[in-house]
Amino acid sequence: MNVLIVYYSLYGHIYRMAEAVQEGAGSVVGADVRIRRVPETLPEEVLKKMGALEVQKSMAHVPVCQMEELAAADAVIFGAPTRFGNMCGQMRQFLDATGGLWAKGALVGKVGSVFTSSGTQHGGQESTLLTFHVTLLHHGMVIVGLPYAFAGQTRIDEITGGSPYGASTIAGGDGKRMPSENELAAARFQGRHVAEIATKLFRKA
Ligand SMILES: Cc1cc2nc3c(=O)[nH]c(=O)nc-3n(C[C@H](O)[C@H](O)[C@H](O)COP(=O)(O)O)c2cc1C
Q: 0.70 cut: is pTM over it?
């Protein structure tokens, strides 16, 4: 059973979450889990001005996702930061290139799931997750979120991401806050949950 994690991360928050998702999915027996990034669309000059060049270089070893990998996966877990309450343009551009897969129905019946990150606590995590789901539904994917079985999403003793729609982290206005233990636990839970469901759906008799 193959789980593909496809992400974009400018400053590393989504990448850290993706690693936790990978840990969770990888804890399911028989799961083959891979992390892939989507192509960058910003010129190096702009990345430099945004203070993101070093982080981008540190992720350069992660292979860029190929369309065939999406088609070959049993489950795809997408990670994208919020941009004005929606997914980032890099992920949108990647998804907009999946028309060929859509035409063949190549993703129909596969498990799809999403996690996100935002600068502020109420800056659009839920809208990003839910609007992302729309694209996955057009592809015929079976949407899996983060159930309340992950009790960490009910806590109010600390500021935390995480909703029934998917794991999330809050980077802070200055981007200095990295995913908390609770947010990483949510990402691990979601990874495991997706892999368990995909195992039930795709287990070979
Ligand atoms: C153009 C742009 C738009 C953004 N829009 C939002 C937003 O609507 N709400 C919010 O809370 N954060 C917003 N942010 C902050 C990003 O979501 C944040 O930097 C990101 O989640 C960090 O994750 P990353 O390090 O994986 O890229 C925006 C950032 C940029 C550059």
A: yes
Q: What is the pLDDT along the chain (205 residues), one digit of tens a residue?
A: 999 999 999 999 999 999 999 999 999 999 999 999 999 999 999 999 999 999 999 999 999 999 999 999 999 999 999 999 999 999 999 999 999 999 999 999 999 999 999 999 999 999 999 999 999 999 999 999 999 999 999 999 999 999 999 999 999 999 999 999 999 999 999 999 999 999 999 976 5
Ligand 1: residues with CB < 6 A are: 9-14, 81-85, 117-120, 123-124, 171, 175
Token code pair at residue 55: 């982080």
Query: Would you say 140 and 108 are in contact if contact means Cβ atoms under 8 Å apart?
Result: yes
Distance CA 155, CA 127 (A): 21
* Ligand 1 atom closest to the CA of 17, numbered from 1: 26
